[in-house]
Fold Transmembrane protein 26.
Amino acid sequence: MGFLVQFSCAIITRLFFILISLIGVWRVKIVKDDDIYWFMTFLFLPLVVEMVITLQRRKGQDYKWFSPAIFLFLISIIPSIWILELHHQQTKSSDPQCKKLDSLENLRSLISNETVENRTIQTYLKVLDQALSTVCPNDWILSLHQVLLILLIIGKWLLPRGGGVTRDELSQLLLIFVGTAADILEFTSETLSDVNENSPQLVYVILAVWTWSMLQFPLHLAVVNSKTESMSSDSLLTKHSTDIWSIVESLFIQDGPFLLVRLTVMTYFGVFHQMLVFFAIKNFLVVILNFYRLFVICQDYRRPFTREEAEL
């Protein structure tokens, strides 16, 4: 029974990954009005191959320090988000009137438009396509960002645990994912809204940093660790590997790059407002506290040796 549940979760999670990626490709095709973008579905093939290999060789279980399914899911959907973001930044000044999903009334009106009497599958799909096409491009992109991050958290929860990964480590990892997802979503939504029409290069920088920060989700080194090896080794790197990796992630993958981008937006591009300053200070504090944490780890690691030398 347990094997059947794991097998089902492994398949269902990857099918959801493919479905969301397919929605992203469909949206790109609608926005660009070009059928050639359907070829982006070939990016799903590595995820399908990984699913077959994992189900056959590992019975659906994920790996300990790295998740190929999440990594391949990111590869399949990130290009669609890049295209949508760049297209929106280029055409947002000429976007027609659209329906924002910022109120319950707008959402109800969107759903009510889909009611058609004596509808067939073709008419239903046609009305659904017309209703979805009236949604504002920015809301579409934001929804994709939100669904992507939520699915990464739920997907990691549903994927069968790899060998050696405990429930405690998985719960810690999921909590880290929640905090990371909130910071990443805030970074993309707030920072991209500050971009002027005359600074397209900043859009590339923000999207590149966003893509770089998403690499935290396939990696599990900040929590998962071999405790037996850590206890038997005197090396600083092995004894505090989880703490050091967590510091590295913050400094070089998330808060460090986020701080640099926000400082660039404020100084070079002249954008300055209350929320931007607040989050820049927040990133700065996290960076400083991580350096302090690294200093404390090094001091605690050296302290036993200095005491032994003093006794001698």
